[in-house]
């Protein structure tokens, strides 16, 4: 008996070990921070408002961390991330933890937590004499997530102030959960932080590498000491061209870290590693992660490069960027390729990036149909997919995998049968449809007659204050407490107020004020076919700010006019010309979750055709000027320069397609919330808008030199004051601004407007500011 028992036992143990070493494992790179029921967001905002203590906030944070770990673990994922949870932003966490706290925050003598938040969002408390501005914010690669870029200068020192990674590793371990701690790799950290304004011209933060390495060693050694076997170092900078020249830096860093660290996996989310593979394959690391959602083609060459090294591969197959159910059979086939070359024990399947760009779970969505839900996969479901994929590769196809096969087939069928009329229309787009009937000078003459605007015409960017009353009316309408008719009356009253206000203030080109819009993208999505909306699909934008992007699920068309009714009503109230107001195709697409089955180009053109019809209908309704906002055209720029041209071509074509259906006398406007066009200036010019308005009040006027040097010849309204603060600019300030601008730009091309829409402002400051703006424009008419 004993003999048989030991024999069986040893076979059993052998099998376990054997299997363990020959199995594909699964990983998740990061998870949403918001917490179920928006717990984190609510706790942070309550703390900011002074309604709860730091301890209360920490206890919520701790519960959310537990909930996240358990959710990933219960899904069956092997490598569970820790240390990437944050109360504001994880790049800011690194700076703070490394003791990089610029003097202006130190001087406020705040608690650690308040110093941290002040670095993220500034702090003003006049009574206590506290007044400090936030660090700069920047977009995180091509996502809509924003990082906080703390100032670094040559004398920046790094000192481990708070070992968040060790703390959270231990916190999870105490819950019985083994995790893989996550940090930004040192090269990405230094590439993303900000160079202090007063730092010498030849300084770049990357020069601080030697000073930074010891802190990383300290953190990584502490993790190893605490028992961590693996660590994830995020180096998304690898998705950029510039990383290709960072070979020496990578070598230096990873040769220094590897001996003291747990086994290192370098991740490369957001794009392809490109030529950087030439040095990556030489590094003393355990594994390299690839983004195969965005860049599946890179797999073959990377496998070839690493097959004779000791480096394992982590396949980022489950998208961290979209909300679509993964095609697990397709992912399985790709992963099998890697297994064939490297063997199962050198392969991990993973998410393409952190899941922070996705909502938590589809399970809470009550308004979507079964069919719609069967297409989608949010963070929780993505964790299950990663695990199911690993299981399938290890020879056990789970029920989830089978269901996935069915759902994907059904989705493909739906895609094939959605709107063929729309697709035919896209296929039928001609060159002529992309151009206005005459060149700008001719159009301009026609528009002068049609609009009859003075020199230095004054206008605004579209929205007027979205007051509490407006939001309440919308909420009541949503709950059925107001009838459609009552709601429309309320909006008409707002429009009447906006028109009266502009009349009284003496503006020249009016707007209706956009009271009826909940959001500049959602408003259009709700009226177009092809979009669906979640109830709780919140995605982090920055800090405690979350957005709920609409989802494009099928071909897009416009069943009926969307804005004509409101613009026509507004025009009926005044003899002054009313500007129609639309969101452009590229911006609608960029601020939504796009489809994955057709290209962005096709989706953008479908949107452009819908908007083209709207533009024509507005013109037919007597609207003489139409603005098509494209603030997202620049942020949609691909990360690699070699991909720019094809993007810019369809982005520009889409704008032109949407605006070229009208006669020469219709003045087409566009608006951009930024002005650092730099490299893409020719594309801005190629939009051929009759008038563009840009953010310019905060920027150095040198930016306008770009317009001059390119010989920009259409009309332009560089914003004369900043709308992001309640501060009222004086008449003299605006005059000075106009005078400075008139030194660079031809006076007869200038339009006078604020930087952006006024929806976040109050009426009082809006009234005062615009009164001063009109006075300054009148002065300019005399001067030039
Ligand atoms: N027309 C929009 C508004 O005024 C433009 C918003 C934007 O540029 N982000 O609100
Ligand atoms: Zn703007």
Automatic annotation (TrEMBL):
Which InterPro entries is this protein grouped with?
Answer: Cbl-indep_Met_Synth_N, Cobalamin-indep_Met_synthase, Met_Synth_C/arc, UROD/MetE-like_sf
Note how many cofactor molecules are bound and how: Binds 2 Zn(2+) ions per subunit.
Q: Name one GO biological process term.
A: methionine biosynthetic process
Q: Which residues form the Cobalamin-independent methionine synthase MetE N-terminal domain?
A: 26-337
Q: Give me the residues that bind L-methionine, please.
A: 461-463, 514, 629
Binding residue positions for Zn(2+): 671, 673, 695, 756
Matches recorded under CDD domains: CIMS_C_terminal_like, CIMS_N_terminal_like
* Residue span(s) of domain Cobalamin-independent methionine synthase MetE C-terminal/archaeal: 456-778
Give a short account of what the protein does: Catalyzes the transfer of a methyl group from 5-methyltetrahydrofolate to homocysteine resulting in methionine formation.
Q: What is this protein called?
A: 5-methyltetrahydropteroyltriglutamate--homocysteine S-methyltransferase
Species name = Naematelia encephala
The opening ranks of the lineage are: Eukaryota, Fungi, Dikarya, Basidiomycota, Agaricomycotina
């Amino acid at each position: 008996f004993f003999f048989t028992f030991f024999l069986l036992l040893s076979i059993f143990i052998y099998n376990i070990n054997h299997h363990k070493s020959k199995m594909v494992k699964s990983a998740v790179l990061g998870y949403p921070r918001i917490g179920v029921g928006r717990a984190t967001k609510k706790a942070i905002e309550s703390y900011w408002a002074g309604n709860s203590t730091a301890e209360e906030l920490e206890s919520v944070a701790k519960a959310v961390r537990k909930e996240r770990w358990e959710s990933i673990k219960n899904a069956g994922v092997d490598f569970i991330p820790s240390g990437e949870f944050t109360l504001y932003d994880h790049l800011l966490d690194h700076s703070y933890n490394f003791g990089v706290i610029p003097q202006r925050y130190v001087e406020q003598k705040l608690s650690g937590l308040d110093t941290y938040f002040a670095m993220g969002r500034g702090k003003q408390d006049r009574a206590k004499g506290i007044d400090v501005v936030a660090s700069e914010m920047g977009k995180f690669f091509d996502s809509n997530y924003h990082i906080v870029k703390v100032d670094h200068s040559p004398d920046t020192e790094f000192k481990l102030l708070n070992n968040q990674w060790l703390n959270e590793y231990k916190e999870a371990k105490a819950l019985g959960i083994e995790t893989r701690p996550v940090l930004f790799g040192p090269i990405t950290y230094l590439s993303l932080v900000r160079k202090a304004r007063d730092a010498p011209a030849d300084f770049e933060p990357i020069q601080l590498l030697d000073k930074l390495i010891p802190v990383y060693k300290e953190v990584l050694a502490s993790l190893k000491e605490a028992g961590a076997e693996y660590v994830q170092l995020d180096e998304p900078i690898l998705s950029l061209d510039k990383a290709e020249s960072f070979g020496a830096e990578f070598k230096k860093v990873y040769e220094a870290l590897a001996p003291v660290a747990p086994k290192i996996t370098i991740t490369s989310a957001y794009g392809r590693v490109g030529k950087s593979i030439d040095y990556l394959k030489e590094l003393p690391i355990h594994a390299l992660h690839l983004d195969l959602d965005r860049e599946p083609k890179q797999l073959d060459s990377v496998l070839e490069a690493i097959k004779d090294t000791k480096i394992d591969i982590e396949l980022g197959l489950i998208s961290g960027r979209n909300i679509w159910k993964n095609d697990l059979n397709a992912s399985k086939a790709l992963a099998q390729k890697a297994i064939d070359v490297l063997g199962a024990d050198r392969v991990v399947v993973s998410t393409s990036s952190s899941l922070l760009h996705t909502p938590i779970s589809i399970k809470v969505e009550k308004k979507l149909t079964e069919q719609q839900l069967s297409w989608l996969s949010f963070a929780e479901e993505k964790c299950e997919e990663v695990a199911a994929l690993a299981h399938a590769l290890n020879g056990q196809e789970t029920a989830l995998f089978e269901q996935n096969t069915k759902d994907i087939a059904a989705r493909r069928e739906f895609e094939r049968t959605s709107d063929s009329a729309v697709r035919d229309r896209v296929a039928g787009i001609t060159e002529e449809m992309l151009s206005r009937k005459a060149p700008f000078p001719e159009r301009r003459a026609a528009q002068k007659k049609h609009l009859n605007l003075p020199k230095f015409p004054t206008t605004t960017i579209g929205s007027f204050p979205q007051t509490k009353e407006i939001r309440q009316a919308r909420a009541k309408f949503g709950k059925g407490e107001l009838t459609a008719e009552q709601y429309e009356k309320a909006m008409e009253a707002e429009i009447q107020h906006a028109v009266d206000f502009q009349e009284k203030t003496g503006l020249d080109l009016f707007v209706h004020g956009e009271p009826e819009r909940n959001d500049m993208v959602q408003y259009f999505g709700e009226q177009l076919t092809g979009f669906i909306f979640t109830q709780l699909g919140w995605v982090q934008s920055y800090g405690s700010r979350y957005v709920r992007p609409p989802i494009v699920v099928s071909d897009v068309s416009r069943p009926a006019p969307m804005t004509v009714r409101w613009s026509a009503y507004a025009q009926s109230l005044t003899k002054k010309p009313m500007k129609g107001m639309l969101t452009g195709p590229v911006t609608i697409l960029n601020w939504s979750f796009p489809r994955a089955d057709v290209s962005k180009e096709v989706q953008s053109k479908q949107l452009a055709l819908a908007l083209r019809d709207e533009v024509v209908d507005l013109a037919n309704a007597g609207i003489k000027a139409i603005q098509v906002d494209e603030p997202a055209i620049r942020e949609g720029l691909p990360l690699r320069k070699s991909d720019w041209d094809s993007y810019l071509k369809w982005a520009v074509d889409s704008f032109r397609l949407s605006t070229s259906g009208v006669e020469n006398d219709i003045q087409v406007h566009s608006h951009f919330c930024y002005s650092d066009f730099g490299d893409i200036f020719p594309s801005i010019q190629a939009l051929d808008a009759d008038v563009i308005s840009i953010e310019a009040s905060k920027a150095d006027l040198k930016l306008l030199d770009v317009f001059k040097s390119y010989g920009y010849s259409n009309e332009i309204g560089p914003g004369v004051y900043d709308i992001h603060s309640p501060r009222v600019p004086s008449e003299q300030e605006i005059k000075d601004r106009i005078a400075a601008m008139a030194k660079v730009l031809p006076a007869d091309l200038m339009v006078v407007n604020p930087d952006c829409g006024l929806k976040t402002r109050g009426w009082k400051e809006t009234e005062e500011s615009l009164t001063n703006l009109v006075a300054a424009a009148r002065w300019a008419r005399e001067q030039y």
